């Protein structure tokens, strides 16, 4: 583990402050790591996944001995060092050819991870089409009925969604920025297809546009390998919602079946003594009467106090 | 021509935006994601994967775009923005929820009294100079020692250096502020540890007294007495000495004990941390590790 350092300069203080936990979090930064041995195929997929995740991503140029299923400590070290929460590690061995590990950390501790093998992969540069601009949020589609069937797929879905959903702290999306789509299809509990397309919005004669797609790349067929689901306690801590973001309970307001708002108001008891009745000239009080009235009122108050 | 028919011809001119799905698709629009749980057609996927997947993606994208373009919009200089609803998918955070900062003594006092912070301007007008100066800090309005002339008060000693006096006063103020900061930090750490700050401070002082008493040769016997000092117990360890002549075997045993400790660690147990982490991790965390496993084996070997 890294030492916890105390800032000596103002710039250092700002840098440390930036790393402090936030109530509303920005997009999680991802680190793309080259393992000790890699194949051309898995590296091309890694680079394409990196370019899809940019600008919240770092691609390590040097090789690193990271085997998160054996020892999570190197990963946790990188998490702290780079202030990153998402990892993709590429490796290639005889036992596990063209291997990718998607891992996620919480509080610089390994939370969950899933390992996939790349069976087939077509890199982005092979598609001679226009690419999406950096920094635009992609649309995501998870199709197939297998997604919720196994822990492996659930974890993979959660991590991929976490990685490519972008900065969700902003509740506005530019409609002109809807540029590309990542479609991930689970054929079975073992096989997953990842395809990426650019979106063209065409006229449809209605207010909504007609969507046409053009393959942008990368396209890869993945097989599920090992998986490590999140520890229950750690998951619980990671999914806690801050008090500020919890919906406020509305007091005394209900909605009926028709969706109408029904309010309940609590009022003081009405003082009928001061009720304004019909004014008539004959009932009008003169100045002398007024004084008497005051005295009487004083007395009545006293009586009430008794 | 009928309006309905006219609309229909206009519609027919373009491809439709409608998509039919057997199971309705779920959306989480804050994350711009659609979950299509309709089963995959395996035969089609095997025969022509690219066209099938592209069609599947187009349908999903069309449904998602229909939803997003149906949201209320706002127009800004950069374009038209859709306002997204709250997220529905549970996704873990990267870091824990920030802890609430402990209030300082002043903040606590202000809270109970209902004193609110007021915004003051950073610059103040200095009449002597005829210009604005920062309220505090470098070349600030409160830098009293910067004055070129200081009046000696009527009842003051004329030989006293007024500049020196102001410098000393400022030093004292700074010291006082530092002391208060330290106290606030100590109190905050005590409260965070679930202790009463007053009790924690008391315990700390008592510990310090005991330490200082024990640090003189006479163990504080001739030191000035503090008030209520007799209530503080001062522990004095008694030194034990081995007898000068013992059996050689006992002496040997002691020496061997030390040697073993140096060579193998405490109790002869050697823990290879890297190996242990690896073993635990490969089993999927501590929860899957049988803690009794190693012990049983040991018994069997005996």
TrEMBL record, chain A:
Pfam families, per database record: Brix
Localisation per UniProt entry: Nucleus, Nucleolus
Annotated GO biological process: assembly of large subunit precursor of preribosome; maturation of 5.8S rRNA from tricistronic rRNA transcript (SSU-rRNA, 5.8S rRNA, LSU-rRNA); maturation of LSU-rRNA from tricistronic rRNA transcript (SSU-rRNA, 5.8S rRNA, LSU-rRNA)
Composition bias type Basic and acidic residues, residue spans: 245-272
Chain coiled-coil ranges: none
Source domain of life: Eukaryota
Keyword Phosphoprotein: no
Disordered as annotated region, ranges: 1-21, 245-306
Domain spans labelled Brix: 28-233
Keywords: Nucleus
Alphabetized InterPro entries for the sequence: Brix, Rpf2
Molecular function GO labels: 5S rRNA binding; 7S RNA binding
Gene Ontology CC, one term: nucleolus
SMART domains per record: Brix
Main location: nucleus
Chain segments annotated as transmembrane: none
Entry's family note: Belongs to the RPF2 family.
Name of the protein this chain belongs to: Ribosome production factor 2 homolog
Taxonomic lineage from the root: Eukaryota, Fungi, Fungi incertae sedis, Chytridiomycota, Chytridiomycota incertae sedis
UniProtKB/TrEMBL annotation, chain B:
Keyword vocabulary terms for this entry: Nucleus, Ribosome biogenesis
One Pfam family from the record: RRS1
GO cellular component: nucleus
Transmembrane segments: none
Basic and acidic residues compositional bias, start-end: 162-186, 196-209
Family label: Belongs to the RRS1 family.
The protein, known as: Ribosome biogenesis regulatory protein
Species of origin: Spizellomyces punctatus (strain DAOM BR117)
């Amino acid at each position: 583990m890294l030492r916890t350092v105390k800032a000596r300069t103002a710039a250092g203080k700002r840098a440390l402050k930036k790393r402090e936990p936030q109530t509303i979090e920005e997009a999680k930064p991802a680190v793309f790591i080259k393992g000790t041995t890699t194949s051309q195929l898995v590296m091309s997929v890694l680079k394409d996944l990196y370019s899809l995740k940019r600008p919240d991503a770092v691609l390590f140029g040097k090789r690193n001995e990271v085997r998160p299923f054996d020892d999570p400590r190197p990963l946790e070290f990188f998490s702290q060092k780079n202030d990153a929460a998402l990892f993709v590690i590429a490796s290639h061995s005889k036992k596990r050819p063209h291997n990718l590990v998607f891992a996620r950390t919480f509080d610089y501790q390994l939370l969950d991870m899933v390992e996939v093998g790349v069976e087939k992969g077509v890199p982005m540069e092979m598609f001679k089409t226009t690419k999406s601009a950096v920094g635009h949020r992609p649309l995501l589609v998870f199709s197939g009925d297998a997604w919720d069937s196994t822990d492996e797929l659930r974890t993979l879905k959660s991590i991929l969604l976490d990685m490519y959903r972008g900065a969700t702290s902003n509740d506005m999306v530019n409609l002109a920025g809807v540029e590309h789509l990542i479609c991930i299809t689970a054929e079975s509990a073992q096989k997953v297809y990842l395809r990426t397309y650019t979106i063209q919005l065409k006229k449809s004669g209605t207010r909504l546009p007609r969507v046409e797609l053009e393959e942008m790349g990368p396209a890869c067929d993945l097989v599920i390998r090992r998986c490590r689901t999140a520890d229950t306690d750690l998951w619980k801590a990671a999914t806690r919602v801050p008090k500020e973001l919890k919906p406020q309970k509305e007091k005394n307001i209900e909605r009926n079946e028709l969706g109408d708002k029904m309010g309940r108001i609590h009022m003081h008891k009405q003082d009928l003594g001061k009720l304004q009745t019909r004014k008539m000239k004959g009932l009008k009080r003169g100045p002398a009467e007024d004084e008497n009235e005051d005295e009487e009122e004083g007395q009545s108050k006293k009586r009430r106090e008794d | 021509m009928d309006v309905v028919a006219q609309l229909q011809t206009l519609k027919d001119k373009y491809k439709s935006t409608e998509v039919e799905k057997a199971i309705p698709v779920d959306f989480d629009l804050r994350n711009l994601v659609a979950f299509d749980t309709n089963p995959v057609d395996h035969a089609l996927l095997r025969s022509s994967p690219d066209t099938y997947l592209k069609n599947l993606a187009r349908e999903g994208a069309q449904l998602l775009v229909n939803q997003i373009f149906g949201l209320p919009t706002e127009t800004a200089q950069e374009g038209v923005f859709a306002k997204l609803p709250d997220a529905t998918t549970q996704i873990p955070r990267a870091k824990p929820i920030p802890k609430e900062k402990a209030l300082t003594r002043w903040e606590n006092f202000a809270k109970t009294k209902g004193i609110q912070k007021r915004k003051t301007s950073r610059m103040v007008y200095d009449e002597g100079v005829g210009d604005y100066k920062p309220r505090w800090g470098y070349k600030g309005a409160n830098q009293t020692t910067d004055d070129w002339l200081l009046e000696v008060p009527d009842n003051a000693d004329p030989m006293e250096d007024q500049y020196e006096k102001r410098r000393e006063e400022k030093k004292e103020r700074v010291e006082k502020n530092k002391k208060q900061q330290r106290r606030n930090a100590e109190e905050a750490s005590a409260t965070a540890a679930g202790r009463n700050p007053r009790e924690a401070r008391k315990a700390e002082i008592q510990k310090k007294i005991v330490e200082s008493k024990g640090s003189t040769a006479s163990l504080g016997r001739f030191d000035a007495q503090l008030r209520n000092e007799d209530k503080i117990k001062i522990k004095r360890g008694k030194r034990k000495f081995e007898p000068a002549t013992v059996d050689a075997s006992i002496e040997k045993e002691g020496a061997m004990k030390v040697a073993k400790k140096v060579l193998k660690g405490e109790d002869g147990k050697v823990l290879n941390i890297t190996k242990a982490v690896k073993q635990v991790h490969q089993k999927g965390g501590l929860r899957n590790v049988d803690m009794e496993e190693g012990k049983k084996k040991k018994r069997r070997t005996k």
